[in-house]
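User: Is it possible to get a 3D structure for a protein together with its bound compound? The compound here is zinc ion. I've pasted both below.
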Amino acid sequence: MLLPAGLSITDEEQWVRRMLDRLAAKEQRRRPSDDDLLERASELSVRYLGGKANPSSVRWVDNQQHRWGSCTPDHGTIRISTRLRGMPSWVVDYVIMHELVHLLVPSHGPRFWALVEKYPKAERARGFLEGFSMAANGTAEEC
Ligand SMILES: [Zn+2]
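Assistant: Yes, that's possible. Here is the predicted structure of the complex:
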């Protein structure tokens, strides 16, 4: 970090605080909250699934080391792995979309994939996650 020359100590502290605030705001944008996830899920459902998938909750969980996302169709709850935090939003959206479709179709059959493919970047996101998993631990994983 390069401090502008000629700042007094107080100015310097304020400047540093401002930079930290700005960084925190930036970080916040890259780390959507649980509420943000639910809002994204509703948008995706309306846009690609005719609003048929209605999750009751979508939240981040950090105990999911082997799956990107999971859901409980009976309760309409979706859980997204915190490992996705910081990944591009279109990748996070894909995982949300995948779980939304699971609320409608439990298994990975042709009907499931036909619905998932309504999300235009589905194929690209799957490639991204596969590549990420391979690089990280040598196994591809998907819910
Ligand atoms: Zn799945």
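The chain has five helices and three strands. The mean pLDDT is 88.
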